[in-house]
Every structure is written in structure tokens, then in C-alpha cells.
User: Fold these one by one.
Assistant:
Number 1:
Amino acid sequence: MRIASLAAALCLMALPALASQQSSRTPGPHRDTAALCRAECLATAASRPGGAAANAPQACAVRCDAAVSYLRSQQAPGTAEATGRGAVMQPVAIARPARPAATHGVIYGARTPSAAFGMVVGEADRLAAHRSAERACTTAGPGCRVLAEFTEACGAVAQGYKRSQWALFISSDPNSYVITSLSAGAGPRQDQAERQALAECRSRDPQANCRVVAAACAGQRG
């Protein structure tokens, strides 16, 4: 408990310096958003068992800068921040065709032989997509890491597996096989995402069996 508290204190002490370093790169209206994001990220890292890692401030800065970059990309042309001239420039109303908002997909996978993974597709917020996929993975397996990040509509996960040395043949019994790899795929259609995941699986180990264990597209309802 003392170690976790000390780690949390160190993270919070590092926040002002980190915010100062990043503020010069974050335009006015988004500075508060970036600071709040980093504070939330550091607090979350400090609350984890063992406390925050030494690189937590840097990792939080990378994630939050990505979120702010996405917000800036959605800034409508002609606004004060986009023109850089404040109220001097009067925006002109121009009819533009509606453009679908970008969505984010993320796939996390645990260390093999664990079969745990987490997949999110069609999430409007990039950081929320990362948090949801990582949470789903870590509740089922250890050592989760990012397998893929994409803006395609569909994502898929494929498993590579081989017969267990204790089994005569592979069956539906999990004890009859061993997971050797987890691979991810993405595409505008589900079948394309599945093909990409299977191709990645086979490239990892041509001797392994490969199968799609999950696939989803933005807007799908279970």
C-alpha cells in the first residue's frame, strides 16, 4: 500500500511539469482537455496493483496528445482556431456534404498460451477504445498488449493452435491443443478482416492451425 501511495504521489508531482512541457504544443481551447486527460490517466495508473510505472507520465502524455490531435482534426474550417485570426475573420457559411465521423478499432491480446483478447470496433473516442479493449483482455489473461489499431469498420481475431503433447488428437476440449499465437485483422467488410487475421496467423507459423475466434463490425448488434 505504501509503495502504491508513493507511486501515485510521484505521478501527481510529475503532472505539473509534464503539463508545462506539453502546453506549448497544445493550442488554447484544448489545453484543459489535455490536462484533464493526463490527470485521469496518471490517477488510473497509480491505482493499479503495484502503483504506477516509471514511464506512466510519458505514456499518458502520448495517449492524451493523440486524443487532442483527434479533437483538433475535427475543428471546422473557418473557426477562430482554424484561421488563427480570432474574431477578425467572419466565417462564411458554405454548404458541405455530410462526412461520417471517423471511428476507432483496437484489438489487445494476452501472452500465449492464454487465449484472452479484447476487441472494440466503431468507437468514436480513441482512448475509450483502448481502455475498453485492454480491460476486456486483462480480465481474462495476463500480459495484454496492442495487436492492432485501425479505423476500418470491421475487425477480427484469429488463433494459431497446435495439438497438445498430452493429446492423441485435437478436439473441442481445450486440453487437447495449445494456443501458439493471436493475430488481428481489419477491413471495410467482415470477410476481409477475417482473411487478414488468418493470413497474419499463417505467416507467424505455417505449421500451426488457424481459426477466426471473433469478428465484428461497427454498428453490428449482437
Number 2:
Amino acid sequence: MADQELRDAIAEMPFPELGPAAFTRPPSLSEAVVAIVTTAGLMRPGEKSWEGGDSSFRVFDRAERDLIVGHVSLNFDRTGVAADRNVVYPIDRLEEMAGEGVIGSVSRRHMSFMGALGDLSTVFTDSGPAAAKMLKDDGVDVVVLTPV
């Protein structure tokens, strides 16, 4: 019943016109720079907590590992993340893949959004384009998306 209520609520949400999707062919994975974008609401210990409706993103250096989940939604099971951060932030797996030559390299920066958003308009018009610009400026070819 709750699942249907959620589906009904989402069905009534407005969705902006996005226009045609842009696409460029990335290099082969063995040559690609790969970054992570997650909606897990990751943050550093002691950092200001995420708040409901926050459409900003946080940027993490490739070497950072002491990240915590600050997602405001209580509706997802955090057990997997507690056991292995790579469930939502697969940085160790990317490092292994780069070491094995499966991917070209791991981006120097990665990012997290807080995924419990009702209104996505600011993501479409502001934080999303800003995140894309940062990734492009960093030379990222491929993004691993981990929705939470």
C-alpha cells in the first residue's frame, strides 16, 4: 500500500522539458578517466549535515575514504553501506580496475548528492550543470552512478 501511495505521489510531480540528450562517444574503458556520482548523501565526519531538499553536491578527493552516509531519508537499508562503503561509493573497486588496466584511471575528484529530493528543478538548472562542468573540467570520460 505504501509503495502505491509513493508511486501515485511521484506520478503527479511535474517534470521539466529537457530537450534532446547530448551524447559523445567516450574512449574505450581501458583509456577512460572514471568518476563516481552517488546520491547517498555522503559527507565527511563533522561536516554540516544534509537537509531535506538540499540540491547541492559535495566533492571528495580520490584519496578520501573516511566518508559517512548523511542521507536524510530513513527509507533505505544502510546495512550494506555499513559493511562496505563500495556499495554506494565504489572507489576501491575503481582503484582495482585501474590497477588491472580495465579502466584508464580514476578521476581525482568524485561527488555526492543527497538523493531524497522532491523538487529536482534546481538540480536540472543549477547543481547538475555545475557538477557536469566540474567533471568535464577534470577530464572525466565515464561516470559510475550509484543511486540510493
